[in-house]
Amino acid sequence: MNQAVILAGGQGKRMKAPIPKPMFRVLGEPMLEWVLGACEQAEIPRICVVTGYEAQQITDYLGDRCETAYQAERLGTGHAVMQTLPFLKQDTDGNTLVLCGDAPFIDKDTIIGALERHIAERNAVTVITARVPQPFGYGRILRTDSGIAGIIEEKDATDAQRQINEINSGCYWFRTGKLIELLSKITNNNKQQEYYLTDTVAIALDEGMRAGAFCSENPDVVLGANDRKGLLALNTAARNAVLNYHMENGVGFTCTDGIIIERSVKIGAGTEILPGTILRGKTVIGENCVIGPNCVIENTEIGDNVRLNTVQAYESRIDAGVKIGPYVHIRPNSHICSGAAIGDFVEIKNSEIGSGTMIAHLAYIGDSDVGRKVNIGCGCVTVNFDGVRKSRCEIGDHAFVGCNTNLIAPVKLGKDCYTAAGSTITTDIPDYALAIDRGTLEIKEGYTLRKFAKKKK
Ligand code: UD1
Ligand code: CA
């Protein structure tokens, strides 16, 4: 069987934060997730991640998604792979892909293309390489007329070798059996006194094994981040790639300032995304919507022809033709049905808002089931929390909830009923009724005049 080892033990000192480098995020996902995703897309059935620095963060993130091997000391990439020997020895028949957890743009096509070459050439090891204009810092590929001769690290290279612009991506396919044999022959006899995985190429050739190189058509496969600037560059590259993908699918952008769209988001054709909009997670947006400016939408399903202006929405559903904003907060587990309209300074939480319902301004609707074509007046509050427990409100179809109504949950308004502005409703109201809860209005004529007269005396 084929399998993969992902190296994720390194620290990333220049990031200046106690986070393993592969856990730094590119477009919202840890770099390690990008690498894992590429393996999963390439349908590699067994994966082992090497952890080291702050290992717990990685094992917590992975859960039981794949195996891990712990590298107690960082003694180099070869030493890191040695830690996976128990994993490798479980299945020595196929091939093992070794990947760096801090180079997120490795892709399925490169992985599969390199494997095909690796098998066709019957190599013990096939290095994935790329030609780049600025090879500084990377291992260089040494070639002779007969093919690859080895890999030399920047620090160990001569000036002439540093001119080579074909570099080691840090990804390789090995025959698993040969990898186990090669690992036993690596030494730390170099400037950094590390066990370099790169030495396996020259060792294989010395031992009469075949070694090859697969130059990727996508030079981004090598890109990694050593510091915050590098991480920003990765984010920029990923962000532009996602924007290009959506534009090819008919999504419109007048200006992309402040627009961040994570890889997993789906957007229908004809939809326009306006500046300052962040779309995260498993968000799905329909066709012909206008989203933005300044929206944050996370794990939310949005139908066609929806208009969101300065809205934050999380873990919710917004059906076709809904108009929301500006300045609206849709909190988790809400469902806004088709044609509803929600205006400025409204918060909705864990509620269903029926189709055609209007909540025009300044309201809080929490833990409530609101019917169809209801009108919620300005300043209405569902009082869903009594300090101990949360309860639900139910508002029937076509109800008219007057301004500044408090609905003390649990309470139910029947269909087609009215509440008078300013009422506090503590008991259920039957269908077609009007509920008024107000003190009697008292008017004291001439009150101010008498008060001033008293003062003068
Ligand atoms: C490595 C390669 C270099 C290649 C480059 C591509 C070696 C000796 N050099 O260099 O030829 O061009 O990658 O990015 O392999 N790691 C561990 N344990 C360790 C050391 C590293 O798990 O003891 C992990 C790191 O977390 C990282 C990966 O291995 O994910 C690569 O290590 P890094 O130190 O970044 O290697 P480079 O110097 O970049
Ligand atoms: Ca690196």
In the predicted model, the low-confidence regions spanning at least 5 consecutive residues are none
First and last CA, distance: 103 Å
Ligand kinds: uridine-diphosphate-N-acetylglucosamine, calcium ion
Tally of helical segments:
10
The CATH architecture category of the largest domain equals Alpha-Beta Complex
Spatial extent as radius of gyration = 31 Å
| Mean pLDDT over all positions | 97
What is the count of β-strands? 41
Domain tally: 2
At the fold tier of CATH, the topology name of the largest domain is Spore Coat Polysaccharide Biosynthesis Protein SpsA, Chain A
Helix content: 10-25%
Q: Characterize the biggest β-sheet.
A: 11 strands, parallel
Search tags:
457 residues, binds calcium ion, elongated, 29% strand, 11-stranded parallel β-sheet, 21% helix, 10 helices, alpha/beta, Spore Coat Polysaccharide Biosynthesis Protein SpsA, Chain A, binds uridine-diphosphate-N-acetylglucosamine, UDP N-Acetylglucosamine Acyltransferase, domain 1, 9-stranded parallel β-sheet
Explain the layout of strands and helices.
Blueprint: E1 3-8, E2 25-26, E3 29-30, H1 31-41, E4 46-51, H2 55-62, E5 67-70, H3 77-82, H4 85-89, E6 95-100, H5 108-120, E7 125-131, E8 140-144, E9 147-152, H6 159-162, E10 166-175, H7 176-183, H8 199-206, E11 211-215, H9 228-248, E12 252-253, E13 260-261, E14 266-267, E15 272-273, E16 278-280, E17 284-285, E18 290-291, E19 296-298, E20 301-302, E21 307-308, E22 311-314, E23 317-318, E24 323-324, E25 328-330, E26 335-336, E27 341-342, E28 346-349, E29 352-353, E30 358-359, E31 363-366, E32 368-370, E33 375-376, E34 381-383, E35 393-395, E36 400-401, E37 406-408, E38 411-413, E39 418-419, E40 424-425, E41 434-435, H10 447-456
